[in-house]
Each structure stands twice: as structure tokens, then as C-alpha cells.
Amino acid sequence: MSKIFQHLVSSAVPVPIENIDTDQIIPARFLKATTREGFGENLFRDWRYEADNTPKADFVMNNPIYSGQILVGGKNFGCGSSREHAAWAIADAGFKVVVSSFFADIFKNNALNTFILPIQVSEDFLDRIFKAIEADPKAQLEVDLENQFIKIVSTGEKENFDINQYKKTCLLNGYDDIDYLLSLRKEIEQYETTRTYNF
Amino acid sequence: MGKTLFDKIWDGHIVVSKPGHPDAVYINTHFIHEVTSPQAFDGLRKRGIPVFRPAKTRATADHNVPTLHQDQPIKEALSRRQVEMLTKNTSEFGVELYGLGHRFQGIVHVIGPELGITLPGMTIVCGDSHTSTHGAFGAVAFGIGTSEVEQVLATQCILQYKPKRMKIEVNGQLGKGVLSKDIILYIISKISASGATGYFVEYAGEAIRRLSMEARMTICNMSIEMGARGGLIAPDEITFDYIKGREFAPKGADWDKSLEYWKTLYSDSDAEFDQVLTFDAADIEPQITYGTNPGMGMGVTRHIPSLEQLDEKERPSFKKSLEYMDLQPGAELLGKKVDYVFIGSCTNSRIEDLRLVADFVKGKHKADDVVVWIVPGSKQVEAQAMEEGIDKIFAEAGFQLREPGCSACLAMNEDKVPAGMYCISTSNRNFEGRQGPNARTFLASPLTAAAAAITGKVTDVRELLGQ
Ligand code: SF4
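Above: the input record for the complex with iron/sulfur cluster. Below: its predicted structure, written as C-alpha cells.
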């Protein structure tokens, strides 16, 4: 899993469903691993495979026309449990960016901590992306983190996205939160001396 | 200007707040379990660092444990390995573990409160989204991912942006047969599964104040189901009475000083919320969900919305959901046959839930073709139930009282609802496959679930209650 994200041009895999919850992204019965790797195989497991493990032909990940490092989902992506395994599964399946018109809070944090860039676009722009992919499954999207935009290459349509400056720096440079928190050791110990009954 | 309860606690826990950075927030209590912690301990090993404050983390095994024969080795190899890893990691890093066989073992959000570990004014996190349960004590409690579990183990702090504040007031009094579970299902059905995303919710109003601690926990538990970061309720005498005398609760002079602080924990009358919603308890009837997210709920006597009642944009997801459930738009659920009844999970597996169900089923027997699982939230709840003879009432009713764990709430262990079957469940999520591949879930209160166990179908429990 690469820790640095800067710029990407790629086709995308569309899953135009709202409220994609983390149990769909990675069902609980596949959470038994004790490492971060290998979850990609079971990404969207029950949408992707029948109970006997044969691929479901109508699911987008089983259609070879669709590929790429960008996953595009409907509104309220990643709701449900706090399992970071959802973000690991997405990363392990080769995605670096997830686009939606709305993300659940914990998922967004988990994605960033997994060095996946969650891009929140307007409903309208999300529609345009889905339409562009419908017209051409190989439609390219360009993601520029430094300049904070996402572009549909064929039409030139572009939208800026928000990202918090701290997290942006982390992604651009491959830093993680623990590095930063460990550097605050003195302040943390100092804080601990100030509070007893009022926690 | 005054402060909200949430702000008082949050602001008091900021270690460092730098412009452009998320706040470094100090965590008083960290709970861990077997599923979301192994990778975090691995991270510490890779960095070669210890757990910074091991006494502030407590562990239990709950998500992945069997609910029968807990005295025997876990049969399933991967589950066993995860539970063994927890034992190994906690002993290596000096963290207290209430593992299988321990008298304190249970669902992490049940044991924290019952042991008096969860206290007002604390910041509490756990690698599980229903950590919001602990907010019922007037604590800031929320779920985190595994990278964040590692942050807390390494530094006792977490990096977070301060969420916005929402107040949800429920005024008036609840009707007969309506429980706190119905309040929260009702609210979620009104504001949707993402209606509180980005917010921390404070629940207030007469209907909330009248609830017991356990009923309050049910409400805070499901805050995440409307997208909220967490939910909390200002502590009061009911809270203090509940805590007093519990295993790890403060004692003696510590108690007095703690109490003095806890009494400052309320939202000032002029505190400002980013959003305020108001509901009337009298409008709430027993609730049930019909779809595959917790926002798809309604009063048990109502009809599922028809397609025409929905926005065009919402229809495809709605249809997909009803297809999964094999239900028709516009249909009613009353009388729908159910196959399984699950009474358990961190939402509704406490002693009060079991008492309520036992009171209701006493002298009745379950319908023939329904399987009823009662899974207590903890060893202590189980022991208490036995002491009160509740186990016998269940046995006579044909209900299976199993051993503590998350069980069919997420079906990681063997407790799975078979494909295509309907389960009325007191848990918190009705997602596709949540209770087993292709299993179909109706979320409801323990009373509504118990009523279905007796009749074998979706039932308005009010019709079975005496005057
Ligand atoms: S009972 Fe369900 S929701 Fe609660 S902690 Fe266990 S898995 Fe999570």
C-alpha cells in the first residue's frame, strides 16, 4: 500500500448505489484476519459472488470493461461500522481514490488513515461522472490533490474538492497521525498532571 | 455565551490545538476487542513502542466468540486465532483482559457501564462504532478505526476535528408498549441514516430524562445509525445512582470529588447548538424497520412507503432494498411471518431488557416454527438473570438463553440467520447480510421482538399487553 498520493489519471469503477455500508464493502465474516492485507478479495463480497463463490455476472467488478484505481459510489458511502477493514479492502483491491457525494464520518477518517483519498463532489458532478462512465466505461478521471480538483478528462468538466490541510500534507508526503502524536509526548505528559477528578 | 455539555468535555480534553491541525484529544478510557485490535498491536511492534498508559485500556472478547459451550476451545480456527491473539497482545503489552471465562466478560459496551468504568465527563473510544453507547453517562464516546486504536495505544490521544453540535429533544411521555428503542428508531426514520453525519448529538427533553440508564444507553447506542459521531445525555441523579457502588466506580472521597465535577456537566441554558430538532413522545408507536438501512423504519401498524411517495432519485436504492427483503412497496408488515427472533446486542441485551421480555412472556410459549435466541450482554447479566429465575421463564417459553457475545448482531460467529429467512432483531443494523448472507432483518424493540416470538409474526405488542 503506497503511502504517498499526489496525482492520478485513471478510469473508474462505478457503483451507483446509495448508503453503501461497511457490511457490504466487507462482510463481518471476513474480518477474522489479523493483518491489514488480503481483504481486497472479499471487497463487496456478497454483491460480487454467489453463495457458491461463482461471480455474479451483473456486478460491475466482474465486468472486465470496468477497471481503474478510482471507485465511484452513491451518496452516504461507508456508513455503518467503524471497521477500518472496509478501507483496507478498497486499498487492497487496488483503489487509491473513492468518489461520492457524501461520506460517513468514520469511513472518511479510516480512508485517509489508509492513504486512500475520499473525494466529496456535488450530487450534480457525481451524476456527470456516472454518465461519463455510462457513455464510455474507459472514461478517464484526473485527480490532482495539490490543486484539489477532479476532472472528467473527455469533457473537461472539473470540480474542486475540499480536504483539510493537515491531511493533505500527510497524503502528499506519506506521513501518518501517529508520527505527529508521538511528537507531542511532552505536551501529553504535561496535560496528565493537570487533571484528576475532572478527568 | 454558555457552553454545550459536549463542548465542556471536549474542550477540557484538548492537549494541543494547532491551526490547520485536528485537535489532539486526550482519551480517559479505551476499550478494545479481538477484531479491530490485532493490526494496531502489530503497528506498535513495528515501531518498537509500548502501550503508553496500559491501565487506561481494557479488553474483552465479544465479537467473534461462540454463544454456546464457551468453556470449550473455539472450534472455528480463524475466530480462535483472533481471540488468542488478543490474549497474547494484552499480556505482552500489559493490558487488562476480560476474556472468555472471566466473570466480567461481555459485549464491550455492556461491560464498561456495568463495571463502573464508564463515567460522566470522560472521553471514551473503542474500535467499534457503537461506542456512542457510553454517552448515556454524559461522556464523549465515539467509535474509531484501527489506525486510531493504534494512536490511542501509543499516545493515549487521538487526532480529531471537532464535530458540530445537535440537540434532539423528545418531549412528553411515551405510550404503553413504547420503549427507548422505539424513540431512537423513530428519530432515525425521520432524519435518515445520514441525518446527523458530522454532528455530536445531545438528547434532552422530558421523555429522555424519565428513562433509566439502560434505556438511555439504547438511545445513545444508535446515534451512529443516523450518521452522528456520537450521542450523549447530561448526567443526573439517575446516572449517579446507577454508578454508585459498581466495581470500578470511585469510592469514598474520590466519589465526593467526582460527584462535584459531574454536577457541572450540563449544557448551559444559553449554549448554542448548530441544529435543534424536537419530537413529541406521544407521536411514537412501536417501531419496525422494513429495509436495509436503519433509516427505513416506521410505526409497526404503518405501510411501507409506495414508490410514488419517494423522490425519483431515491427509488433505485429503495427498490433494491425491498427486493433484498422480498417486500412490496406500500405493503404492511403486521402479520408478516418471522422465522427467527434475536434479543441481544449492545443495543438491547442488558438485565432490564431481559426482565422486560421475561415479564411479558411469563406463562406464554413461543410459536412453533420460530427460533428464539436470547443472548445476554455479559457474564454479569447472565448471572443476574439466573439469580432472578429469568432463565427458567425463557426455558418454559421455548426461548434459548445463550452465552454472552455479539452473536447474531453481526454474525461473525456461528449465530447466523439462514439465507432468505426473516429475523426480528433487537440489534442496531439491518444491512444486507448483517445477520448472515441473505438474511433479512427487522429491527425492533425487545417487546416487539418478544411479541413476534409468541405469535410467530410481526405484531403490535400493545394488543398483547394488559391494561
Ligand atoms: S453487539 Fe453488535 S453493534 Fe454491539 S459491539 Fe457487538 S457487533 Fe458491534
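Notes for the reader.
DSSP finds 15 helices and 19 strands in chain B.
Chain B touches chain A through 78 residues (CB under 8 Å).
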